[in-house]
């Protein structure tokens, strides 16, 4: 690994992991691998972190196959090369979400989360790691504000007491631009095909474009929003 990666992203991942107590000794972590750049970068980052850490933790990848004919061979090779086991779980989620009257994106993410938890329970993983990054967190913040009238975003570390599973997001302080850069530099593996029919036609995509416009006016809006999520002035909230 290049030494300057510490400054580029690894220190930010360390900060998130420590601040939100994401990884402890002997953790057994299931890493959600979608086939996209974010989760590929997440896997790469966790491998680097483990190599440079005093902590001893296991990482196993899992891909929930939605039925959109995805080709995972690059990812399979990458996992083999790095001695990471990869579980591929076939599902009919792709069919189910378009045969329902519910919003397909909402349903898909719910069913995917359900499948991830089931696998974690079955194979005794105590943590599930997801590739959400700071740009995702800000987009979710805007989605909640504009479409739901709610203030907030997803949490860095959530604990499900009933299942005794933590969902961790080690990339919350890394932005999408940095991820794209490292994916390119390291030629990290990406899946081929497997494109969802509503890809790029979602409200999230709309928020992505809005954020790009806002960044033209206020270049540090992304880091400011992350700061705001951690700097809540409860005295001035109306609850
Ligand atoms: N089919 C899947 N199988 C396993 N994990 C998944 C799957 N889809 C998503 N995830 C996990 O959930 C995270 C957020 O999912 P989302 O669909 O928002 O992906 P994304 O932000 O486009 O990320 P990526 O670039 O990895 O596709 C991913 O980074 C990954 O960790």
Automatic annotation (TrEMBL):
Binding-site list for ATP: 32-34, 38, 64, 131, 136
SUPFAM superfamilies linked to this entry: Adenine nucleotide alpha hydrolases-like
GO biological process, one term: tRNA processing
Covalent cross-link (Glycyl lysine isopeptide (Lys-Gly) (interchain with G-Cter in TtuB)), residues: 112, 200, 203
Pfam family, one: ATP_bind_3
Domain tRNA(Ile)-lysidine/2-thiocytidine synthase N-terminal: 29-188
Keyword annotations from UniProtKB, A to Z: ATP-binding, Isopeptide bond, Nucleotide-binding, Transferase, Ubl conjugation
GO molecular function: ATP binding; transferase activity
Protein name (record): tRNA(Cytosine32)-2-thiocytidine synthetase
């Amino acid at each position: 690994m290049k030494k300057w990666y510490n400054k580029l992203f690894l220190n930010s991942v360390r900060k998130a992991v420590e601040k939100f107590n994401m990884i402890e000794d002997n953790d057994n972590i299931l890493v959600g691998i979608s086939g996209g750049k974010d989760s590929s970068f997440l896997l790469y980052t966790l491998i680097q972190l483990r190599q440079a850490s005093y902590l001893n933790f296991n990482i196993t990848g899992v891909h929930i196959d939605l039925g959109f004919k995805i080709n995972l061979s690059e990812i399979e090779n990458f996992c083999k090369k790095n001695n990471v086991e990869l579980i591929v779980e076939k599902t009919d989620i792709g069919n189910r979400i378009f045969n329902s009257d519910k919003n397909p994106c909402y349903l898909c993410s719910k069913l995917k989360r359900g499948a991830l938890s089931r696998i974690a329970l079955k194979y005794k993983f105590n943590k599930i790691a997801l590739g959400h990054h700071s740009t995702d967190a800000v987009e979710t913040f805007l989605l909640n504000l504009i479409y739901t009238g709610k203030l907030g975003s997803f949490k860095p570390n959530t604990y499900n007491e009933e299942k005794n599973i933590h969902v961790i997001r080690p990339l919350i302080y890394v932005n999408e631009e940095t991820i794209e850069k490292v994916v390119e530099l390291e030629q990290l593996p990406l899946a081929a095909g497997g494109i969802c029919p509503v890809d790029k036609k979602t409200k999230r995509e709309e928020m992505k474009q809005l954020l790009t416009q806002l960044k033209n006016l206020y270049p540090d809006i992304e880091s400011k929003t992350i700061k705001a999520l951690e700097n809540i002035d409860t005295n001035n909230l109306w609850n």
